[in-house]
Amino acid sequence: MTLLDPIATEASTASSPSAAPVDAYELLRFAALDELRDHGLDSASAADVLPMLRRLVDRYQADATSGGLRRPLHDPAAMVQRLARSILDYGPLTPFLDGTIAYEELIIHGEEVSYIDTSGRLVAHDEPVSEHEVTHVVSKLLATVGAAVDESRPFIQTQILDGAARLGVVMPPIADRIDVTIRRYLARRETFQELIEWDAVTPAAASLLAATLRTSTGVIVTGQPGSGKTTLVNALLRSAPPSLRVIACEDTPELSVDHLHAARWRTRAAGPDGAGEVSLRGLVRLSLGMRPDLIVVGEVRGEEAYELTRAGNAGCGMLSTIHANGARQGLQALVSTAVMAGPNVAPEQVRGVFSSIVDLVVHTAKEPTGARGDGAGGRRQVMEIVAIPPMQGAEVDFTVEPIFVREDFGLPLRYTGNPLPAELEARLARVLRPLDMTVSELLEGSKGLV
User: Fold this and answer.
1) In b/e form, how buried is each residue of 374-407, taking b as 16+ CB within 10 angstroms?
2) Residue 212 above 90 pLDDT?
3) What are phi and psi of 128, to 5 degrees?
4) N or C end of the chain: smaller count of CB under 10 Å?
């Protein structure tokens, strides 16, 4: 039985002696789903649903107050509204799906609901929900995109809410209980000024990054999930010249490019028949023929990394994020994902190409919650900015040259004094000269762009 048929699932569960509803709400919710199925009512129509729910609640209350085994409801009208929210909306999860609760990620395991708030804290959601109702909600969400999961296909990851969120589901027998994550994407418009105020980056480091968008430069932003990678990329894009021709390729709309001469392209999952997929690799490949000044990839996770090896040959800049625990690990992850493109892709060749087109790697990190001993934590800060000189001769691995480093959270992001690679410094010097600024002045912070 698939989750795409929640009514049948709920009804059969309700009739099972071993899985009877545990309270009045669940009993009435199962009864309402039976009514919808048996009488062909429109579950999206308040005109159909509300009268039916009132009848069910009135019948329940009459039985409970006439000496039956059921306990009377304290507020029958409130029960009708609660049931209506379950049928017409998404029950206890509605505040997460209509924007009432601001959060980064919703995490559900069976009946346990928690979320990561906008400050990075893990918070428990105290409104009760059953695993069956979670299943019902997931079914409704998947039905909007023509998808489903069942025992033969027990997991899925797809976009929902018109591409505004990503839903991941894993269900038994792969999981012990249904596991759901929903990440809501917001088009953030952070600037370097805000990041400087938050001590995420310094004016000198921000000026270096802003300067890279004035010439063809390859920048990779690394970090763990939730460490501020996309926030930094958006601040970087907000500092770009408005005439910059940008093509943004992403799975979900997170990049802030509306102020630029930009095109935003998004992937598309395959339809139920397996056709119609638009991959990130395909978008990156297509973008190379559209004369961009800058190609931005929201997150590199697979074969699209190989297409980025051509960006340098196309004469355009490159900006992307990748999950990693450090700058060097990010480069290694970039090579590994590029090698996934095919059996004849040699790691040595890919490593050499990336060393010539990736100029800077910026590593971000998120402070563990409670790291300061008072329950506080969660700061997102740039921990290092390193330059990548092109590999020479017999070199077999990347050279990583630290330019800005932060030894720990809360400590300064300091300039190391190390010079940039000669070719990168020459490119930046050309765009800084008309501003009466040198690369040294920019790195030392005596003059800046932000």
Assistant:
1) eeebbbbbbbbbbbbbbbeeeeeebeebebbbbe
2) yes
3) -65, 145
4) N
Which of 363, 383, 301, 285 has its CA nearest to residue 334? 301
* pLDDT class of 16 with cuts at 50, 70, 90: very low
* Beta strands 317-323; 112-116: pairing state: unpaired
3-class secondary-structure state, position 65: helix
Residue 332 pairs in a beta bridge with: none
Amino acid found at 432:
L
CA distance 315 to 122: 44
Least confident of 8-17, 57-66, 98-107, 380-389: 8-17
Tokens encoding 199: 């001590």
DSSP conformation letters of 176-212:
SS-EEEEEE-------HHHHHHTTSS-HHHHHHHHHH
- Indicate the CATH number of 192-444 among 3.40.640.10, 3.40.50.150, 3.40.50.700, 3.40.50.300: 3.40.50.300
288-321 residue pLDDT tens: 888 899 999 989 988 899 999 887 677 889 999 9
- With residue 405 as reference, give the H or E element that holds it: strand 401-405
Model confidence, pTM: 0.77
